[in-house]
Design a protein that fits this description.
homodimer, 223 residues, alpha+beta, Arc Repressor Mutant, subunit A, Chorismate lyase, two-stranded antiparallel ribbon, 5 helices, 38% strand, disordered C terminus, DNA-binding
DNA sequence: GAGTGGTCTAGACCACGAG
DNA sequence: TCGTGGTCTAGACCACTCA
């Protein structure tokens, strides 16, 4: 016996899947839908919250609820963001000093001068990913980024979580939509950290892909 | 100006963080908390729903709301699940025939005989991860699993999403808690898929780690 | 100003858990 | 049986968008 909320969410989901409700279309207003389904407005809103968490609809205050275009899933490839034709990138550079989490991440003393690059990529109209990249200031960040020759190793830690309020508003996503958070640390062959990055990818529009080649002579080097 | 829901959630969060509310403790009942915070029960329940989505509390119908023990984060290492001392594994083996998503995943014709290994790992009392591993039946799965000599390449696609109802009940997690879903495909050097796996890791208790070694002579082989 | 979603209230009734 | 959380109702009032 499913709850009313789930029943309504299921119905709307199939209407979207079958194209009965097309991408970009506005749903009837919440009071209208509540009347149609013979439920109260809070119940109807609960149903919509489910669809929102799945990235199927977008709620816009004062305008209505809209069926989202199924976003092409972009794939982050282990190592760097995939360059893409219709991917616009906005970059902001800031100088700051190491504090908090950044100290162990970059393995530097507190207050070490750092440069932060803030990347915000867009896929067409909608924000796609947020990246904060940190580099020690003495490591000539001018030519900058992507794969750099001195890199010897990159460690990427991937977690799934809900976005912080900041991230939710920057990426214009629901605060209930899961995001892929990647912490990437690149070191040179002396073990020195040459770059650390925190990437946030909305779960409804991004995957991460990691490819491991198994050399036939060496295998089983794991702990 | 934060909403009442967020204010209450923040307050409870700090009470948990400071140890004012200890792990395992039962929170006061919802009507009691609603009175304390001078809000209605739905508003209070909205606040608790936020904490639940973050994996901080557990709601048990008929008993109360409980502060969860901060689970040690276990790390999935690119390639395989990390063996761990207090990690119990339950395995179930099933024979089936390829259908649906499994066909393109394993690159086999429909109805190819497959063997499914279902892994459910536990960290102490609580379920930790769910893995479904598929192997073509003609590929001698008897000695089975982990890293096998014939593997030439492993591709792992990582996404963040909410769990399916099935996954939520199997892993005993809230349906609003983000999970890390990893699809892993291993091929031999002829390109044949020798194993495909779908892993589900609850976002509050698992990370995935991928390590890339950059050979100095070859770099920038990405598209 | 009209219409939309965002938040909140003060209840009701049901289902589950434990004694 | 009693206290708990789960679901739902029928409103109220505010904030935002657009004409």
């Amino acid at each position: 016996m499913a709850s009313l909320r789930d029943t309504i969410a299921d119905d709307l989901r199939t209407q979207i899947a079958t194209g009965h409700l097309k991408a970009g279309a506005r749903l009837p207003s919440e009071p209208t839908l509540a009347t149609q389904y013979k439920v109260s407005t809070p119940t109807l809103r609960n149903a919509l919250a489910l669809l929102q968490a799945e990235g199927l609809i977008e709620k816009i205050h004062g305008k209505g609820n809209f069926v989202l275009h199924p976003l092409r899933r972009l794939t982050y490839k282990g190592g760097r963001l995939t360059p893409d034709a219709d991917l616009h990138v906005a970059i902001r550079m800031t100088n700051l000093r190491a504090r908090g989490d950044l100290i162990p991440l970059l393995k530097v003393p507190a207050r070490t001068p750092l440069t932060e690059f803030l990347f915000l990529t867009h896929q067409g109209e909608s924000p796609h990913s947020l990246a904060r990249i940190y580099v020690p200031q003495d490591l000539a960040p001018a030519e900058l980024l992507w794969c750099r020759p001195e890199w010897a190793e990159t460690r990427e830690t991937v977690t799934a979580r809900v976005p912080t309020p900041d991230e939710a508003s920057t990426l214009r996503i629901s605060s209930t939509l899961a995001v892929l958070a990647i912490t990437r640390v690149s070191s040179d062959n002396t073990g020195r950290v040459v770059e650390a990055a925190r990437l946030v990818l909305p779960g409804d529009r991004a995957d991460a892909l990691f490819i491991t080649h198994h050399a036939t002579e060496e295998r089983g080097t794991e702990g």
